[in-house]
Amino acid sequence: MSAVQERVKWKLLTRRDLDLKLPYIHVLTCSDGGPPVIRRIGTLLAAVTLTLVSTVAGVTLTAGAAHADGCYTWGRTLSQGMSGEDVRQLQVRVAGYPGNGAVLGIDGAYGPATRAAVSRFQQAYGLSADGIAGPQTFNRIYALQDDDCTPVNFSYAEFNDCNSDWSGGAVSASTARFNARVSMWKLQAMRHALGDQQIVVTSAFRSRACNSAVGGSATSRHLYGDAVDLGAGPHSLCRLAQQARNHGFNEILGPGFPGHNDHTHVAHKASRTWSAPNCGI
C-alpha cells in the first residue's frame, strides 16, 4: 500500500518573537509498518529533542539525532586530537567561549583549547559538558545559525553598511566577510551570557573610503572586518566592555579611552589592547 502522508506545520516566528525560527516538518508514516521518516524543510530547530505525535496509525515519533543544516552539516563526532575543516567550522561557532582573556585559534586542530571552548559552550546551553562535539552540541549550533552561517541574532547587512561586496578594506572581501562572521559568533556568545538581550551594533566593516569618511584610524581593525562598535541599549557601554573580556576579543576600547565615550569597540588582533578606564579596564 502507498504511504499516508501527514503534514505537521509549525508556525514560523520572527527573531523578535523568540529569537528562534521554527521549522516546517513533514512527518511521513508508512501504513505497511515501516519506520516513520522525519524530513526537515527550512531552518532546523534542533536545540532540543522534538517529540511529534502522529494521529495517523497512532504512531509516536521522536527526533533526537543531528540533521542536515542549510549552512554546514557535521558528519562525525569531534574530539580532542582530531583535525579537519569540520573542526575549523566548529571553532568558528565556539570562538566566543575561549575563557577570560583568551582567544581561540581557528586552525582546524582540536586541541585542549578547543575542547575547553566546546565544554564552555555546552555548559552555557545546559548540555553535558564533556568537551566532545556530538549530535546534541551540533543540534544546538544548528538552532543558533541561519542558512548563510551567521548566528541568528546578527547579520551580514548589520555588519556592513559601507558597501554590498565587502571590498576595499585592508584584506580581501572574502577574508573581511569571514572575520566579521567570527566576530558575530563571539558576540552571539556574549549576548547569551548577558541574558539573551539585544546587543546594538553601530559600526563594523569599513572600506578605506568609508573609514576615511568617518575619520577612522588608518590602521583600524574595521578595515579587516573583525572590529565592531557597540552602542548602549539593554546594557551600558561599560557592561559590554567588561563582558567582552570573556569572549575572545584582544582589542576592547570603551568609555575613558579617547574617542570612545559614546561606544564600546571590540576587535581581534595579534596583541592585546584593553582600555576603558571609566569601566575599570
UniProtKB/TrEMBL annotation:
InterPro entries attached to this UniProt entry: Peptidase_M15A_C (IPR013230), Peptidoglycan-bd-like (IPR002477), PGBD-like_sf (IPR036365), PGBDSf (IPR036366), Zn_M74/Hedgehog-like (IPR009045)
Span of domain Peptidase M15A C-terminal: 153-267
Domain Peptidoglycan binding-like: 83-140
Pfam families from the UniProt entry: Peptidase_M15_3, PG_binding_1
The protein's name: Peptidase M15
